[in-house]
Design a protein that fits this description.
ComF/GntX_DNA_util-trans, 6 strands, two-stranded antiparallel sheet, globular, ComF family protein, 234 residues, alpha/beta, PRTase-like, PRTase_dom
Length: 234
């Protein structure tokens, strides 16, 4: 243990780590966020009521879901929104993995992952993945998997078409924008699974609903949802 700590300290001197939110140098005991940014992260605490919370209610009457939770609230022009912005648009896939580890560590202690059998990241089109260089939802899932040991399923469902960004659309436009966008690619991988859909940001729930409508075609499947953040339309 002492040896690991020694080499960690040496590495930290050679290649200093920075907080991805405020960009301040991290202390050896900090990570992935500095203590100040970690404390100020607007956590939702959804995992304490995973069957009934603001995000879970988005899916009532739309698709059958088990547990739902977002790690923190997305607030425009905040340090927390900057994290997501850097993850998606500034070539920082490591932020997704680090935050995945953080949320998994906190939620595992509350048994959130009990009965989940696999992680299912929201897919991107091949074109978007090539443009970005990675799928941020897969990076988040990698972090969660490293803590929980849950397997990641990546090719059982695919996104057929490249859609416009959902960012500036209203609820009706968001739903229309993702209609018939996803299709099952290997349903056998999902038989009898309780999958945890992984996304970075959920606002209207339109994307998750579109995926869910495909997933319920699979025999004996259960669906739960976990995102890094929830951007309420309210």
């Amino acid at each position: 243990m002492t040896q690991i700590s020694f080499f960690s300290r040496v590495l930290d001197l050679i290649v200093p780590r920075a907080c991805p939110s405020c960009e301040r140098r991290l202390a050896i005991t900090e990570g992935p966020l500095c203590a100040a940014c970690n404390m100020s992260l607007p956590r939702t605490m959804h995992h304490l009521q995973p069957f009934e919370n603001e995000m879970a209610r988005l899916f009532w009457g739309r698709i059958p879901v088990e547990k739902c939770a977002a790690f923190f609230l997305y607030k425009p022009n905040s340090t927390s929104s900057y994290l997501i912005y850097k993850l998606k648009y500034f070539d920082h896939p490591e932020i997704g993995e680090q935050l995945g580890q953080l949320v998994a560590t906190e939620y595992e202690s509350e048994n959130f992952f009990d009965e989940i059998t696999a992680l299912l990241p929201v897919p991107l089109t091949y074109r978007r993945t090539i443009q970005r260089g990675y799928n941020q939802s897969i990076e988040i899932a990698r972090g969660i998997s490293s803590v929980t040991g849950l397997p990641i399923i990546t090719k059982a469902i695919r996104r057929k078409t490249f859609i416009e960004s959902q960012t500036h659309k209203d609820l009706w436009e968001r739903n229309k924008n993702v209609e018939n966008t996803f299709e099952l690619n290997d349903a056998a991988k999902l038989n009898n699974q309780h999958v945890l859909l992984i996304d970075d940001v959920i606002t209207s729930g339109a994307t998750i609903t579109a995926i869910g409508k495909e997933l319920i075609k699979v025999p004996n499947i259960k669906i739960s949802v976990l995102s890094l953040c929830f951007a309420s339309d309210k």
